[in-house]
Amino acid sequence: MDIAKLRSQFPAAEQFLYLDAAHQTPLSLPVRAALDAFYDQALNTAGPKKHWLTHVEEVRARLAGFLGAEPREIAFTKNTSEGLNIAAHGLRWEPGDNVLLLEGDHPNLVYAWLGLRAKGLEVRPVPQDGGPGKKWADADTFAPYIDSRTRAVSLSHVMFHSGQRNDVAGIAKLAKQHGAEVVVDAMQSLGVLDLDVRALGVSALAAGCHKGLLVPQGLGLLFTPNDAERLSPTYTALAGMADTNENLAVGTGQVKLRPDAQRFEIGNFNLPAIHALGAALDLFEEVGVRSVEEHVLDLGDRLIQHLDALGIRLAGPVERERRSHIYVLDLRAPGWPEFLASEKVRVSSVRDGIRVSFGLYNNAEDVDRLAGILRRGLTKLSDQAA
Ligand SMILES: Cc1ncc(COP(=O)(O)O)c(C=O)c1O
């Protein structure tokens, strides 16, 4: 299946101009079918739980393959916040240690660390203004702030409010030289960019699955490379134990945690969403995430050409290798959100303007239609202002 044919699998994309993948992606027919199949089994058989749990491990293995990881490096979580908190609280801190964050990063990332200030962690915001023309973060961004007490650097791979793609691999190299861990929020990049998580060199990478990975809310993942034992889980449950026995009797002896990422798993899984993820991975296997990345960047090229012609500035970077599927248009005049909604365009208002974000279901015509609507909006809203 090529990417053009995929659009028909996302009915919402045909019903209005859906340009809000960074908020959430519309459900696709195959994912819906996987959910239906799961609920049919639950309805008719009261739940073949053993079979479902086998399927969890199959999906874990496929997800790991999709990310360039091993199954033992993947934990299923509830969402990005849970994964980030597991990593932040799991590192061994001394009071007076510090963590470097980018100013303006996603609240769920910032709060995961702010919660640790009570235990003596210093949270150091790093300005992400790289100077004229540089709208992304790399090792040079963090170098002036890192010191011998820096225990971690934590950042979003792709920033939700600008679409900038930060140089995680370069930042991880710098951090390693200083003995610091790198904890990444990949909520916006997973399923959009062709990621090889191990090659990034990070200590932990967390994401939810309801955007690029195309499943409904309530499922996330945490990647921790082979040495998961460096992180201690804050919570413990049967799922994370190495020595379980058939009769489920627990003594009061030592807690023996699994050596792999599953040590962070708590209780039952979000089984419907894991089934849905299996169907989403089928889609990616057909189309290839590399094609998704090229596709959204091509749509970005086209959008930038239109914006140039219309005189609309982009808040984030224009360089292809520094951007993603998110484009923030510097349209801050009051009235834009309402105007776009009245034209049946689904976008988000963010701090620097109107955020347009592409999914694998968007096409060049969507971009051209948006440009026409923006042109009309510029006339209408400037007439109103006059
Ligand atoms: C960068 C980033 N991190 C995290 C989230 C959401 O966090 P969670 O998955 O915990 O709801 C979002 C958006 O919803 C995001 O854009």
UniProtKB/TrEMBL annotation:
- Which part of the chain is the Aminotransferase class V domain? 18-370
What molecular functions are annotated in GO for this chain? transaminase activity
Protein origin, superkingdom: Bacteria
Tell me the keywords, alphabetical order: Aminotransferase, Transferase
Ranges that cross the membrane: none
Specify the protein name: Aminotransferase class V-fold PLP-dependent enzyme
